[in-house]
Amino acid sequence: MDRGALPLAVALLLAGCSLSPTSLAETVHCDLQPVDPERGKVTYTTSQVSKGCVAQAPNAILEVHVLFLEFPRDMSQLELTLQASKQNGTQPREVLLVLSVNSNVFLQLQALGIPLHLAYNPNLVTFQEPPGVNTTELPSFPKTQILEWAAERGPIASAAELDNPQSILLRLGQAQGSLSFCMLEASQDMGRTLEWRPRTPALVRGCRLEGVAGHKEAHILRVLPGHSAGPRTVTVKVELSCASGDPDAVLILQGPPYVSWLIDANHNIQIWTTGEYSFKIFPEKNIRGFKLPDTPQGLLGEARMLNASVVASFVELPLASVVSLHAPSCGGRLQTSPAPIQTTPPKDTCSPELLMSLIQTKCANDAMTLVLKKELVAHLKCTIMGLTLWDPSCQAEDRGDQFVLHSAYSSCGMEVTANMISNEVVVNILSSSSPQRKKVHCLNMDSLSFQLGLYLSPHFLQASNTIEPGQQSFVQVRVSPSIPEFLLQLDSCHLDLGPEGGTMELIQGRAAKGNCVSLLSPSPEGNPRFSFLLHFYTVPIPKTGTLSCTIALRPKTGSQDQEVRRTVFTRLNVISPDLSGCTSKGLVLPAVLGITFGAFLIGALLTAALWYIYSHTRSPGKREPVVAVAAPASSESSSTNHSIGSTQSTPCSTSSMA
C-alpha cells in the first residue's frame, strides 16, 4: 500500500472538486440499507447516558452511586463491575450502590475488595454468584424518591439512567464533576466514572457505490459529538475474516476535533481518519489524519474517491471509548437485509444455562429440596418437558407457582459422604435435543466444625486468648474437615470492646477496614487470614473483648442458594498496660507521668539556677529589663497533662473507639 503519494493526490482531487459548484460528495449515489447482522456487527462501550450526573464528595465517609436500569425483556442478564481506584495505598471507602430495575435481572456482580452495601429489589434481581456484600431491600419508590432515599445515607457521587445495558463498569473515587449535588440531567457524559455497553448492537448500513468497478470495500465509522469536549481516545477494533491475504479495504473514521483513534486491526487496511491516529502495536507513534466531511453523504463521497466500490458498513455512534467492528467476510460483496426490514426484536429463545442457574437448592431435616419458579421459566420462554433427579423416578411436583423436587438423603440416588450429600438435577426442555444437567450439594453441618483463632505471630502455630495493645495480632478462620467443592471466605469481622472501648471494624465486605488491618494470603488449605494492630488512647482501658467474624462456605460452581453462612467468635483478655508496669517493650502510663513530673522539676530548678548565676555575675550598671519566657518543660508538661485521659486520633484508631 503506497501512502506516500496518496495525500498529494487527494489534495489535488479535492482542489479540483472545490472549483465545481457541485462536489463529488454531493453527487454520489449510494442507497444505504441495513446490512444482514450475520455479515457485519458493531458493538461499542460509551460513557454517554440518557440522563445522569457526577458530583464531588471528597470528604464523605460513604460513597453513594445510583443506577436506574430499563430492560425491554422480562428476563435480562447484566454484568456489573465495580473498580476501586488505588491512591497512596489507602483502603477504598465504603460504597452504597442503589440498583433500581424495571424487570427481572440475572446479575453477575464483581466488587472484589470493596466494602459494598447493595440496595436492590430481591424480587427482581437474581445473582449469578453470591454477592458477598451487605444488602438492603430497596423500597418501591419513584425515581425522585429513590434519589432522596439515597441522599439521606450520604452525598450522591453519581447517578445514571441506562437503557438495556449488557455490561456496566463503575469506577469508584473518579468523580471529577464540578457539581456538589447530583441532579439528573439529560444527555450527560459520565467521564471515567461509568462506562457501559448496550445490549443492542449499533445499526449497520451498507450500499454499492454506482459507477465504481472493482472489489474494494469501505468501512465508515462516524462518532457523533458528546456532551463534553475534552480530549478523548477511541479504541477501534477491526476484525475481518478473509479467505486469503489481506483485504482490499479502507477504514474511514470521522469524529469531533478532540477525538483521536487507537486502531487494533487483524489485517492490513488503508486508514483515513480525522484528528490523529495510532496503532496498538505502536501506540506512541501518532499519525496526523485529514479533514473529512461531517455528513453521511460527504463520507460516502470520500469512500468513492478512494476507489471503494462497496460500503460494507456505515455506522453512526455516540461518543464511545471502544468500538468493535466484526465482518465475517471481505472482498467487495454486499448482503443487505431482505425487505421488509424487521423492526421488532426477534423471538426470544430459551437459555439453558440461565435456566439451570435459577434452580434453588435447600437443605434441611435430612432432605434436599430443589425449587424452580414458574414465573422465571416463563420469562425465559422455556418449555420444560421433564425435571428429575439422577434417579428418573424422582420427578418434580407441580405446586402451582413452582416446580419442586424433594428427596430424603437416603433415596433418589443420593451420594452420601461424611461431609456432603450430592445428586444431579436433570432438566429436559423443548428447545434442546439433550437434557441439561447440574450438580447439587447439601452439606452435613453436624460433621463440620468452624474455628476462629487469634495468634501472636505470623506462623499461626499456637492460638492465644490474649491481646496486647500496640502489638500485631494475627487471625485465621478455618473449617474442619475441609471440603474441596466449597470455598471458605471471610465476609466481615469486628472486635467488640464493650462500652469502654466501643467496636472496631476489621473486615467489611471482604475488604480490610482501616490502615491497621491487612488481608494476608490464605493458608495452604485455603483458610482466610488477616492481621490488625490495636491501640488505645482512652482511660480506662477495657479488660476483655469479643472477636466476631462472619464466614461463608460457597460452592466453587457459583450457586448462590447453596452457600452456608456462620458467625464465629472468640473471647479475648486485653493486657492492660497500667497493670504490666514498665517493660522492655515500652513505657506505660505511671512511667510517663513520672518522667513528665521529673522533666518539669528539672526544668524549673535549672531555670532558677541560671537566673541566680546571671543576676549575681553582672555589674549593676549593665543590668537590663528581662522578658520572662515560659520554660519548655512547663509547656511540655501542660501539653502532656492535657492529653492524658482525652481521645487521640491516629491512623490506627477509629471514631468508635473514642
UniProtKB/TrEMBL annotation:
<dbReference type="GO" id="GO:0005539">
    <property type="term" value="F:glycosaminoglycan binding"/>
</dbReference>
<dbReference type="GO" id="GO:0003273">
    <property type="term" value="P:cell migration involved in endocardial cushion formation"/>
</dbReference>
<dbReference type="GO" id="GO:0045766">
    <property type="term" value="P:positive regulation of angiogenesis"/>
</dbReference>
<dbReference type="GO" id="GO:0042803">
    <property type="term" value="F:protein homodimerization activity"/>
</dbReference>
<feature type="domain" description="TGFBR3/Endoglin-like N-terminal">
    <location>
        <begin position="45"/>
        <end position="197"/>
    </location>
</feature>
<dbReference type="GO" id="GO:0001947">
    <property type="term" value="P:heart looping"/>
</dbReference>
<dbReference type="InterPro" id="IPR058899">
    <property type="entry name" value="TGFBR3/Endoglin-like_N"/>
</dbReference>
<dbReference type="GO" id="GO:0043235">
    <property type="term" value="C:receptor complex"/>
</dbReference>
<dbReference type="GO" id="GO:0010629">
    <property type="term" value="P:negative regulation of gene expression"/>
</dbReference>
<keyword id="KW-0472">Membrane</keyword>
<dbReference type="GO" id="GO:0036122">
    <property type="term" value="F:BMP binding"/>
</dbReference>
<dbReference type="GO" id="GO:0007179">
    <property type="term" value="P:transforming growth factor beta receptor signaling pathway"/>
</dbReference>
<dbReference type="GO" id="GO:1905065">
    <property type="term" value="P:positive regulation of vascular associated smooth muscle cell differentiation"/>
</dbReference>
<dbReference type="GO" id="GO:0030513">
    <property type="term" value="P:positive regulation of BMP signaling pathway"/>
</dbReference>
<dbReference type="GO" id="GO:0009897">
    <property type="term" value="C:external side of plasma membrane"/>
</dbReference>
<dbReference type="InterPro" id="IPR055356">
    <property type="entry name" value="ZP-N"/>
</dbReference>
<keyword id="KW-0732">Signal</keyword>
<keyword id="KW-1015">Disulfide bond</keyword>
<dbReference type="GO" id="GO:0048745">
    <property type="term" value="P:smooth muscle tissue development"/>
</dbReference>
<dbReference type="GO" id="GO:0051897">
    <property type="term" value="P:positive regulation of phosphatidylinositol 3-kinase/protein kinase B signal transduction"/>
</dbReference>
<feature type="domain" description="ZP-N">
    <location>
        <begin position="363"/>
        <end position="435"/>
    </location>
</feature>
<dbReference type="Pfam" id="PF26060">
    <property type="entry name" value="TGFBR3_N"/>
</dbReference>
<feature type="transmembrane region" description="Helical">
    <location>
        <begin position="587"/>
        <end position="614"/>
    </location>
</feature>
<dbReference type="GO" id="GO:0003222">
    <property type="term" value="P:ventricular trabecula myocardium morphogenesis"/>
</dbReference>
<keyword id="KW-1133">Transmembrane helix</keyword>
<dbReference type="GO" id="GO:0060391">
    <property type="term" value="P:positive regulation of SMAD protein signal transduction"/>
</dbReference>
<feature type="region of interest" description="Disordered">
    <location>
        <begin position="629"/>
        <end position="658"/>
    </location>
</feature>
<dbReference type="GO" id="GO:0072563">
    <property type="term" value="C:endothelial microparticle"/>
</dbReference>
<dbReference type="GO" id="GO:0035912">
    <property type="term" value="P:dorsal aorta morphogenesis"/>
</dbReference>
<feature type="signal peptide">
    <location>
        <begin position="1"/>
        <end position="25"/>
    </location>
</feature>
<dbReference type="GO" id="GO:0016604">
    <property type="term" value="C:nuclear body"/>
</dbReference>
<dbReference type="GO" id="GO:0005114">
    <property type="term" value="F:type II transforming growth factor beta receptor binding"/>
</dbReference>
<dbReference type="GO" id="GO:0001569">
    <property type="term" value="P:branching involved in blood vessel morphogenesis"/>
</dbReference>
<dbReference type="GO" id="GO:0015026">
    <property type="term" value="F:coreceptor activity"/>
</dbReference>
<dbReference type="GO" id="GO:0097084">
    <property type="term" value="P:vascular associated smooth muscle cell development"/>
</dbReference>
<keyword id="KW-0325">Glycoprotein</keyword>
<protein>
    <submittedName>
        <fullName>Endoglin</fullName>
    </submittedName>
</protein>
<dbReference type="GO" id="GO:0005534">
    <property type="term" value="F:galactose binding"/>
</dbReference>
<dbReference type="GO" id="GO:1905007">
    <property type="term" value="P:positive regulation of epithelial to mesenchymal transition involved in endocardial cushion formation"/>
</dbReference>
<feature type="compositionally biased region" description="Polar residues">
    <location>
        <begin position="640"/>
        <end position="658"/>
    </location>
</feature>
<dbReference type="GO" id="GO:0048845">
    <property type="term" value="P:venous blood vessel morphogenesis"/>
</dbReference>
<keyword id="KW-0812">Transmembrane</keyword>
